[in-house]
From TrEMBL:
Protein family (similarity comment): Belongs to the CutA family.
Lineage: Bacteria, Bacillati, Cyanobacteriota, Cyanophyceae, Coleofasciculales
SUPFAM superfamilies tied to this protein: GlnB-like
PANTHER family linked to this entry: DIVALENT CATION TOLERANCE CUTA-RELATED, FI09726P
Protein name: Uncharacterized protein involved in tolerance to divalent cations
Pfam short name (any one): CutA1
GO terms (BP aspect): response to metal ion
Matching InterPro entries: Ion_tolerance_CutA (IPR004323), N-reg_PII-like_a/b (IPR011322), N-reg_PII/ATP_PRibTrfase_C (IPR015867)
Species in which this protein is naturally found: Allocoleopsis franciscana PCC 7113
Length: 113
């Protein structure tokens, strides 16, 4: 990959929650802790294997916009609040984005301590 296509340092983190209430509570905590600038919640239908059984569940997908440097703190906060034993937490880099939007993310996410 060439250097001009390097990631921006920003990303989205995908996390599913068992209910809208749980998703909203986690989202609110992440925003208040300045670990994310925005969390989008969407209802999703997930089919997955858990403990040897195929599960077919309604869940809520969180799309968390943040600086990827925040991932360790964000992961810790989600684990503290999440009801799942093994919550989905997948960070995807934003390889390009509107500069004003990326700056908005940066202005709402706390610098690493």
């Amino acid at each position: 990959m060439e250097s001009d296509s390097a990631a921006t340092g920003y990303g989205v983190v995908l996390v599913t929650a068992s209910s809208q209430e749980e998703g909203k509570a986690i989202a609110q905590a992440l925003i208040e802790a300045k670990l994310a600038a925005c969390v989008t919640l969407m209802p999703v239908h997930s089919i997955y294997t858990w403990q040897g059984q195929v599960m077919d569940e309604q869940e809520w997908q969180m799309v968390i916009k943040t600086e990827l440097a925040q991932f360790p703190r964000l992961e810790s906060k989600i684990r503290e609040l999440h009801s799942y034993e093994v919550p989905e937490m997948i960070a995807l880099p934003i390889v390009a984005g509107s500069e004003p939007y990326l700056q908005w993310i940066s202005s709402h996410v706390a610098a690493d301590s």
